[in-house]
TrEMBL record:
Keywords: Cell inner membrane, Cell membrane, Membrane, Transmembrane, Transmembrane helix
Database matches in PANTHER family: INTERMEMBRANE TRANSPORT PROTEIN PQIB-RELATED, INTERMEMBRANE TRANSPORT PROTEIN YEBS
Transmembrane segments: 42-62, 93-115, 136-158, 164-184
Pfam family, one: PqiA
Signal peptide: none
Localization: Cell inner membrane
Protein's recorded name: Paraquat-inducible protein A
Cellular component aspect of the GO annotation: plasma membrane
Keyword Membrane recorded: yes
């Protein structure tokens, strides 16, 4: 299958307009700089992914919430918060929080890592796998804020009726870091690289 690049065309990465490409030209519609491929896309993507993986440690080990329980300052990590929800017979919410705060972020990191690795290999990618990879990136991009939303819900819901004030701990900042870095990794990954790797 012919790609736009082979025809001397380039799709604007900002507004999607298809234009005839010349080095250094800008998009006639939105004035963004035109790039046939994002420069060093894979290196950027790997870099953000490595940082996101590293941030998983403080996100899971440091307290995500601090609260007062009967006058005593207590803290919850993501995991102890989930266990507390289960113990308080809020299994449904606990499952949602577990999915959004552990399974989804780790799944996104593994998915992006797999795609980067496949793109890096010299072996061409088969069309079916290529499309699957494209859909994974698309899916990650579309739902990238969901876990951040759910975790903020958790901070509100974890109020088990015993505390006067809840505030976010350093783990919450690290978790937001994981989400944002994963988003940056997905954003820097140029999906057009997938078409260049097509099995011929
Ligand atoms: Zn444009």
């Amino acid at each position: 299958m012919t790609s736009a690049r082979e025809l001397g065309l380039c799709r604007c990465h900002t507004c999607g307009l298809l234009v005839r490409y010349q080095v250094g030209s800008v998009c006639p519609r939105c004035a963004s700089k035109l790039q046939v491929r994002i420069p060093r896309s894979l290196a950027w993507s790997w870099g953000f992914l490595a940082l996101a993986t590293f941030m998983l440690l403080p996100a899971n080990l440091l307290p995500i919430t601090h609260f007062y329980n009967k006058g005593l300052l207590q803290s919850d990590t993501i995991f102890s918060g989930i266990m507390a929800l289960y113990r308080s017979k809020m299994g449904g919410i606990a499952t949602i929080v577990l999915t959004a705060s552990i399974l989804v972020p780790v799944g996104k990191i593994l998915g992006l890592g797999w795609i980067c690795w496949q793109l890096q290999r010299s072996k061409p990618v088969r069309r079916k796998r290529q499309l699957l990879m494209y859909r994974v990136i698309d899916f990650i991009g579309r739902w990238s804020m969901l876990d951040l939303f759910v975790i903020s819900l958790m901070v509100a819901l974890v109020d088990r009726g015993v505390m006067l004030s809840v505030r976010a701990g350093p783990g919450a900042t690290a978790f937001a870091g994981v989400v944002v870095l994963t988003m940056m990794s997905a954003r820097m990954l140029d999906t057009r690289l997938l078409w260049d790797k097509a099995a011929r």
